Amino acid sequence: MTAKSTKPEKKNYHHGDLHQALLLNARQMIERDGVDSLSLRKLAEQVGVSRTAAYHHFKDKNDLLIAIASQGFQEWQQLCQQFFAVQTSEGSHQTTNSLGPEAFARFFQTYIEYATNNPAIYQLMFGDTLWPNTSPDETIKLTQTAHPCFQYQLELTKQWQQQGILSPSEDSLRLTQVTWATMHGIARLVIDGVYQQGASIDDICQCAINLLLNKTDSQLS
Question: How is domain 11-58 classified at the CATH fold level?
Answer without folding.
Answer: Arc Repressor Mutant, subunit A (1.10.10)
